[in-house]
Amino acid sequence: xxxxxxxxxxxxxxxxxxxxxxxIIKNVAWRKHSQLVSASKSALDKLESLSxxxxxxxxxxxxxxxxxxxxxxxLQPLIAALESAYPKVxxxxxxxxxxxxxxxLIRGCEIKxxxxxxxxxxxxxxxxAAIADEAIELAVLKVLxxxxxxxxxxxLGDCLIxxxxxxxxxxxxxxxxxxxxxxxxxxxxxxxxxxxxxxxNSMHVDVKxxxxxxxxxxxxxxxxxxxxxxxxxxxxxxxMECKDSPFMVKSPTELQNGxxxxxxxxxxxxxxxxxESADVSEYSTIRExxxxxxxxxxxxxxxxxxxESSDDQILLKGKTLSLELLNVxxxxxxxxxxxxxxxxxxxxxxxxxxxxxxxxxxxxxxxQLLCSIFWNLLLKFRSGLKSEIGxxxxxxxxxxxxxxxxxxxxxxxxxxxxxxxxxxxxxxVIDIFVNYDCDVDAPNIFERSVNGLLKxxxxxxxxxxxxxxxxxxxxxxxxxxxxxVRIIKSMGSWMDQQLKVGExxxxxxxxxxxxxxxxxxxxxxxxxxxxxxxxxxxxxxxxAATLEQRRAHKxxxxxxxxxxxxxxxKGIEFLIKAKKVGSSPEExxxxxxxxxxxxxxxxxxxxxxxxxxxxxxxxxxxxSFNFEKMGFGEAIRFFLRxxxxxxxxxxxxxxxxxxxxxxCKCNPNSFTSADTAYVLAYSVIMLNTDxxxxxxxxxxxxxDFIRNNRGIDDGKDLSEDYLGSLYDHIVKNEIKMKPDPSxxxxxxxxxxxxxxxxxxxxxxxxxxxxxKALGANGYLLKHIQEQFKAKSAKSExxxxxxxxxxxxxxxxxxxxxxxxxxFSVTLGQSDDKEATSQCLQGFRYAVHxxxxxxxxxxxxxxxxxVAKFTYLHCAADMKQKNVDAVKAIISIAIEDGNNxxxxxxxxxxxxxxxxxxxxxxxxxxxxxxxxxxxxxxQDDITLRNVNYPSLKRKGTLQNPAVMAVVRGxxxxxxxxxxxxxxxxxxxxxxxxxxxxxLLDQIGNFELNHIFAHSQRLNSEAIVSFVTAxxxxxxxxxxxxxxxxxFSLTKLVExxxxxxxxxxxxxxxxWSVLSDFFVxxxxxxxxxxxxxxxxxxxQLAMKFLExxxxxxxxxxxxxxxPFAVVMQKSNSTEIRxxxxxxxxxxxxxxxxxxxxGWKSVFTVxxxxxxxxxxxxxxxxxxxxxxxxxEYFPYITETDALIFTDCVKCLITFTNSRFNSDVSLNAxxxxxxxAVKLADGGLVCREKSKEDDSxxxxxxxxxxxxxxxxxxxxxxxxxxxxxxGLSKLTSDPRAAIRKGALEVLFNILKDHGQLFTQPFWAxxxxxxxxxxxxxxxxxxxxxxxxxxxxxxxxETSIVAAECLIDLFVHFFDMVRTQMxxxxxxxxxxxxxxxxGPSSAxxxxxxxxxxxxxSKLSEDEWQDIVLCLKEAAGSSLPDFAKLLKTMDxxxxxxxxxxxxxxxxxxxxxxxxxxxxxxxxxxxxxAYIVSRMKVHINIQxxxxxxxxxxxxxxxxxxxxxxxxxxxxxxxxxxxxxHDLNSQTSLLLKLDRACSMLEISGPPLIHxxxxxxxxxxxxxxxxxxxxxxxxxxxxxxxxxVSVCKQVxxxxxxxxxxxxxxxxxxxxxxxxxxxxxxxxxxxxRTPLVLSVMRILGSLERDSFRRHVSELFPLLVGLVRSxxxxxxxQRVLSSIFQSCIGPLVCK
Length: 1700
Description:
It is a single chain. The strands form two sheets. This protein has a two-stranded parallel sheet with strand order 1-2. A two-stranded parallel sheet has the order 3-4. The chain is elongated. By secondary structure, the protein is mostly helical. The longest helix has 38 residues, at 1473-1510.
């Protein structure tokens, strides 16, 4: 053991004290300090006898293990040594004190009174600093820091302040820079220790060491003497780490209460007020000390120089140190500062005031410190200091930021650095916007910051004078751009985090749930977040919708305010209409009184208006003031604080009149009347103007003022003392109205002041010299403090938090324009790599945010700008930054591809141009070399492109493609340089080639990676990507000068990459691709179209490798483009290529075509109708193979495809090139029918919807007929049968006949499979259309309007087949009786003899074969159809007769001389044009009459035959109908022959036309003959019915009519008995003889019928008949048979009656 270790005895304190006392004894001057020597020796002797005695742990002995008396004895020499002021003695004493404190040997329960021995040690150590010795100063600092650091000593209150002050003194009066740095570092370390304990409310805390280098960031860098910073850092570290003593010492606190006492005590201090006199508990004294120290630091920082003191540098240095320490405190502040109301209020009341007062300092270090402190406040206290930050942010940051012309470089760089910090914290950026830009009572900090950065980035306006050097200006620009980039990056980071949180918490439903603040991604001090953003703190969670309302409300208010400042009435009207202000005068007055930003002069002008509403508002405004117990002058001053009086006297008069009324109402005893107050108020205003206007030379004196106001109090004078006092008050203290905005000042600064209400504040801190900061503006400072307190006390000041990413939409709306401008201008003007890199990063982040937020306009703007900056459209001007822009475009495509939507078009356009430049650089031939429409041009280009040299290997080359690119073009132009003729210089091409080397930085991998990456895009994005790629490819292919296929090939690749996507997505993709392939496939450029269709074929072949499940339609969708192009293309080559492609797919992928068969048949259907024979034959060859070999595949997926196959075959039957094709197609149709009948459809599901079947039927229905059925396969018959039905009208007889036979054979062979309802469909859709008639059609027009398509043979076959089918399946089809009969009746109406005869035969067969099966209704239907046939043509026939009557027919029998006379006069009636036209009409009428008569005769024939055969089956009703038919027909025929003039015209016309006339007499004879026979048979066969219908009488009546007609023809006209008879009869002419001969058979029939009547019947009618019979005796006859039959009647009938 060494000698030093033996000194001091066995106690632990002795181990430290012994060597130090011994050194003191050795160094001290014995004679001068004899007492010190004596005391030291006594202490050493005492130590020898002491040992540690920790038996009384509760004691507060100053030294560990020793009693208080022993401690006092041992420490006295140490104190005496410190007080000796002798360096050699003081130095070991300070070292001893340092070790005692560091080892925890000195203990103090509470060191705060000067009676304490420990306090004396500290006091003595502090006084040692006065010794002019650097080492002593450092030793003092060590002791003081060790004392504060020691957890065994609770240094409280004044003692702590004393220690801090002592360190201050060392710093301010230090003898070296090193010592001063150490003093500052010690103070900073003390702050960390004290406030860390304050945070934890405990003496035992872990404290971090201060960083000396960071501490000197703002000031005292000049104190660094070489290695001073390193020395100071080591100095601090040694003190803080000097705690590993060789013995363990417990603190008094631990000994008394245990180590957990402080932890178990609740934090009651957080609920105590800021009142300094509040009662605090024992352990809250730690926080009390922290509070007091913080308060004193703030006070120290607010000390200003006075008139008496000139030592401004020392004061400034102390102020700076205080601010530095406050910065350290705030930088290391914990949650206690936000959660404890007392500490938070201390920040508001003291620190904010300090910031306010020091804002006027011009010292750069102070400004930097203020900014640093403000940053800490913003970072940690923004939720609790919302209002204060709203004031300081514009004051400290925006003021400097918006100063573009004359800024301080260091000051603005400091602000830009602070903004960069702010912008790197995403949550701060969001919070600023939410709490200020969305708050109507707060400034638009975010918006103004962004706009200020934009102004800085753009630099001083052109033509302006700036104090900045070019380098400084460029630095500002780059830093501002960097800040803007950081802002948009932070917005993106916050958005990504919120979206990620939202994905992790999908069950969140309430917008009011607590949201934890987003982590700070860019700030290393992640724990230093705003501690108040917690659910229990004074904050609220808002969603985007609420903030949108707040933001919109604020914008409306600002709009109304701006309008008010221009036109007050308009502004108030707008605000009331927008419901931002109430409509009552009181509400408007409150708005004008409380709203900031309003122009005070405009308020005054509004109050002075004469209109009713403004006056009411002014009255309400004045009435809102309470002037009670307020002096008159003070009341005027208070009243005029909110607005500026207008300049017009009348307006002032009205305002002051109301003021006087209000003042007297509040102070009723002040004046006799309101008039007195009114006059006095006016005088005060005049006095104020006179006294304080520099333009007024002769000022008003007090006597003048008193004299001017005499007699104003109802004739009495006011007190002179009162008036004098008022005069003095106004003259000394001007009634300051707010400055006129029209005064020359910065418009922007003025709007800032008004917006924030900071006119007075800015006047104080920026316009007053700092020496007067506490002088004339003390009242203003007090007012500002009160304003701070008022804002802090407002309960409605709530800090808003938001977690909804939608808030970024509003932020982007504010900042996207400035950011776009800043990035664009910088990128365009600067070639600095770092600056351009920052701009491109900004574009990337901006695109990310706008894309994720779905802001299409903003996103497209950013993407378009970057695309333009690639300069790919004018590659000759490219630089490195443009290549970087290409890289940025690629990065955007990879990173944000899922949200680019329409912006993909710009990106893909850039990639297309980039690839074009690569090809030019590599010397590859252009795509146009094989995409030319002209073969000769293609050959020429091929020759030119042989051995095309690489541009990179050869210098210049005057190639058109190269020259076009070198000349360049606009970004939006599709072709480069096409409109700029002329060659380019070799220098230009060489420059262009050098730029191509720049593009080598981007390889094909990056280019192709975008397209390969497309398979990672989401469902929406891939559709947008493909759509954009199609647009770009379309532009490439449609280029008139240089068509390219780059995007087309990439389109095929992308389709390959994404072919494995889910069917739903792939269907959407293909919908886009399909339209594209169709559009390009129809291109006029044949080469392009062929290339596209071949690409489509490749895709289709690839896609058809995939298996398609049942009931899907993807294969069909994939093949639809082939079908569409096939149908619309005018190019034979394209159509033939499509047929070959489809044929290849069918033959190679027949098993996978599935639903694609529909498109296959669509293609072949179009091919079947093609005009090229080769295409038709090629398609039919494949079609034949499909039907013969692959028929089961057709309906494997969808049975309805069978109908498409049928349609295709039917189209082939219409082919005009080869009858064999048509006939084979008809045979295939029959084959299909056999397959259908045999159940050959593979797809047998009954789940096919009736709607789809109905749709197929409806498509094939005729004339609106709806064919619906629910049988399994019945609906597949309809297309087949209807197709064959249409073929029956084919102009080719063989095809027509074959289709007819096949149709009816199919129906006959397989009709047993059909149900009765389906038979109805078959008739309506297939059979009836053949005959151009339907069951609902009542009129019968021409049978085949298209011409003589059907010949007689076809008609006969058709009728026979129809009746044969109807009879065969009568039980199933009897409901179609009406339609069938109508068809046959229609044939009867045909002008041809063959169809008519066939119809009659068919109708008779129908009646004969089915007679026994027909019901009464069916018979009735047949007869009615015949009746309708007979009567249907009567109206048209009547029109013909009317037309005939109107025609004049010349008489050809006129004498020859008349004909000659007419000819000689030039009028040849026979040959005139009018007569020729009339004769043509007559010819048509004659032919129609013949047809009409033939129809009538056929109807009579059929009715007669049916009655003769089936009369027993006919009911009386039917007989009645038949009777009507005969009667009407007979009457009609008789009427025709009765029209003499008509007959004459017809005779003349037929003679002139040399045609036979209509058989009118034959028609009448046959009609009457059939009628008479029917009546006679009815009379014989049905006596009862005859009696009921009076058939006998009708028979006799008809006979009489016939006989009378005959007699009239013979020249003997029957007359009654009373009329005279002619005495002679003229002989008959030849015409009459012919007519008489024609009528003779009918007369003979009549006479025979009369002769066959029973005797009684004849007797009843003999009186009517006898005169006629006598007339026959007298008449001339053409046949002797008449006389013979007449003789028989007289003999057999008349004779017996006469004889009787």
